[in-house]
Specification:
heterodimer, A: mainly alpha, Rna Polymerase Sigma Factor, Chain: A, Arc Repressor Mutant, subunit A, 2 domains, about 75% helix, B: alpha+beta, Jelly Rolls, Phage tail protein beta-alpha-beta fold, 3 domains, 13-stranded mixed beta sheet, three-stranded mixed beta sheet, 18 strands
Chain lengths: ~170, ~300
C-alpha cells in the first residue's frame, strides 16, 4: 500500500503530483518566460519527462526533478534562440528578455494583486472571482447568487476601487 | 475621482467587462487613477492566466504520453514540433529552414495549435488535423498538405497551395478556412480571393463565399457573414450540416466515442457547440435535435 502511494508510474500518483505542483511550476515558468503559452508548453514537457523517468525518480524528489527539468528546458530554448539570433546576425528582437529587476517588480506586483484580492470583503471577492476566474457573465452571477445585475456590477466596481486604493502607484 | 460618481452606473464593472472603452473611462477618473487602473488591469490579466484551471493541460500531457508510446520512431520531430515550437514563431521558421526533412504538425483531441510557416504565414489548426510541408523548398514553392481543418492567414507573395484529398485550394495572399476530412470538404474565404479546384471544376471565392461538398451530394455554394471561423474562438458552428459530421467534430474536440447507430445521422444541424464544456456542448447539439443522449464515464456517449 505504502509502496503504491509513492509509485510515480501509477496514474493516480502521477495525477496527484500534477495537481500538487503544476500551478507552482506554471507560475515559476511564467515569470521566467513572460509568455504564458511557452510556460504551458514547458510545463507539459516537464511532466512528460517525469513520466518517462517515473521508474527512477524518487517520489520525494519529484518536485525538484520537475523544477530542474523545466529550468533546463527553458535554458535550452534560450540557448537555441541565441544561436539563431547569431545566425540571423541579430535581426531578432528578443522581446521576451526582461531584466531580472523587471521580473522582480512584476512578481511583486502580482503578489500585491493577490493580496488585494484575498483582502476583499467576502461578497466582493466572490463576485470578482466568479467573473474573472470562472469567466461567468454578470447576468449569470446575478442568477446564481439570486441578486440583481446592478448589485453584481456594484460589487465588481467596489472591488476594483478597493484594489486600486490598495495597490496605488507601481 | 474627477466627476461625481453616478450611483446608477458602475463604470468600473463595465470597463473591466469591455463594455466601456479606455477612452470613455478617462471621462470618469483622474489621469492618475486612469494610469493606476490600466496597471491594475494588466496585473489582473496575469493573475487570471495563472489561476486558469489545469485540467486541459493534464489531458494534453496524457495524450502526449499515449501518442509517444505509438510514435517512438519520430521522437526528434515530435519533441520539437509538438512541444515548444508553436509559441516561438521566429525560432520556428528558422528551424524549418535548417532541417532537411518534411515537417509535419499534428493536433491531438481537443487541441488547437497556431503555427507559423517560413514566410510568416499563419495557420491555426483545429483538433485532430495534420499539416505537412517541405521547408527547404518553401521559398519557391508554397505547397502544403492538409487533412482535417485549418484556418490560414497567408502573407502576400507567390502562389500558395493547400492540397487535400478532396481538392486543392490556391491563393495569393488572404485569409481562409479549409475543412477536409473523409467525406467532407469545405472552404470559406474571409479575405482576398481563393481558388478551389475540385475534381475538374474550379471555383473562385470572394470574402464570405463558401463551397462545400459532402458524401455524394452536389457541390454547394453559399454565403457566410463571419470574419473568422468560430472554432478559433472556442466554438464550432454549423450551417445545415448532417449530424454525422457534427458528431465527428464533437469526437475530435472532446476525445469521445459517440454511438449513433440508433439515430438518423443524415438529419442536418444548424447551430454551434462550445469547446469548453462537454455537457453544454452535448445539450446544444442533441437537445435541440430532440435526441436523447447518455453519458457513460468511459468517454462513450450513446444516442437514442
Amino acid at each position: 500500500m505504502i509502496k503504491d502511494l509513492n509509485d510515480i508510474c501509477s496514474n493516480i500518483v502521477f495525477e496527484k503530483l500534477f495537481h500538487k505542483h503544476a500551478k507552482d511550476l506554471r507560475r515559476f515558468l511564467f515569470f521566467k518566460t513572460k509568455d504564458i503559452d511557452l510556460a504551458e508548453d514547458i510545463l507539459q514537457d516537464a511532466f512528460i519527462k517525469l513520466w518517462d523517468n517515473c521508474a527512477t525518480v524518487n517520489y520525494e524528489k519529484s518536485k525538484s526533478f520537475l523544477f530542474t527539468v523545466a529550468n533546463n528546458l527553458f535554458l535550452n530554448i534560450k540557448k537555441h534562440e541565441k544561436v539563431i539570433a547569431q545566425h540571423q546576425k541579430n535581426t531578432i528582437k528578443s522581446s521576451n528578455q526582461e531584466s531580472p529587476e523587471f521580473i522582480m517588480l512584476e512578481k511583486e506586483f502580482l503578489e500585491k494583486i493577490e493580496k488585494a484580492i484575498s483582502d476583499l470583503p467576502e461578497k466582493q471577492k466572490e463576485v470578482f472571482l466568479l467573473s474573472r476566474i470562472e469567466k461567468m457573465k454578470y447576468r449569470e452571477i446575478a442568477e446564481m447568487l439570486g441578486i440583481s445585475v446592478k448589485a453584481v456590477e456594484k460589487r465588481m466596481h467596489l472591488a476594483l476601487l478597493e484594489m486600486k486604493e490598495k495597490i496605488g502607484n507601481v | 475621482m474627477k466627476k461625481k460618481v453616478n450611483n446608477e452606473k458602475y463604470f468600473l464593472a463595465e470597463w473591466l467587462d469591455d463594455k466601456l472603452t479606455d477612452n470613455e473611462l478617462k471621462e470618469f477618473v483622474t489621469l492618475d487613477d486612469y494610469q493606476q487602473l490600466l496597471n491594475l488591469r494588466k496585473g489582473l490579466k496575469d493573475f487570471e492566466m495563472l489561476e486558469q484551471p489545469l485540467d486541459s493541460t493534464l489531458v494534453k500531457i496524457k495524450n502526449s504520453i499515449t501518442q509517444k508510446r505509438n510514435t517512438i520512431s519520430n521522437k526528434f520531430n515530435y519533441k520539437w514540433s509538438f512541444s515548444i515550437a508553436a509559441t516561438l514563431a521566429i525560432l520556428f521558421g528558422l528551424f524549418f529552414l535548417m532541417s532537411t526533412n518534411e515537417i509535419s504538425h499534428k493536433t491531438a483531441f481537443g487541441e488547437q495549435k497556431i503555427i507559423e510557416l517560413p514566410d510568416g504565414s499563419q495557420v491555426t489548426m483545429n483538433s485532430k488535423s495534420l499539416i505537412e510541408f517541405n521547408p527547404d523548398s518553401w521559398e519557391s514553392n508554397r505547397i502544403l498538405k492538409l487533412s482535417g481543418e485549418a484556418y490560414f492567414k497567408v502573407k502576400k507573395g507567390s502562389q500558395f497551395t493547400v492540397n487535400t484529398n478532396n481538392g486543392n485550394v490556391i491563393v495569393l495572399g488572404t485569409e481562409f478556412n479549409v475543412n477536409s476530412s473523409d467525406n467532407y470538404f469545405e472552404v470559406i474565404c474571409y479575405e482576398g480571393k481563393v481558388k478551389v479546384e475540385k475534381n475538374t471544376k474550379e471555383f473562385i471565392l470572394t470574402p464570405g463565399k463558401t463551397v462545400r461538398k459532402y458524401n455524394n451530394n452536389l457541390i454547394e455554394e453559399y454565403i457566410t457573414n463571419n470574419n473568422f471561423p468560430a472554432w478559433t474562438k472556442g466554438e464550432s458552428s454549423f450551417i445545415s450540416v448532417p449530424l454525422e459530421f457534427v458528431i465527428a467534430s464533437i469526437e475530435k474536440q472532446y476525445n469521445l466515442v459517440v454511438l449513433a447507430d440508433d439515430i438518423d445521422t443524415t438529419k442536418v444541424y444548424t447551430g454551434s457547440f462550445t469547446h469548453n464544456n462537454l455537457d453544454v456542448a452535448l445539450a446544444s447539439v442533441f437537445k435541440t435535435m430532440n435526441i436523447k443522449y447518455l453519458k457513460k464515464d468511459n468517454g462513450i456517449i450513446s444516442l437514442e
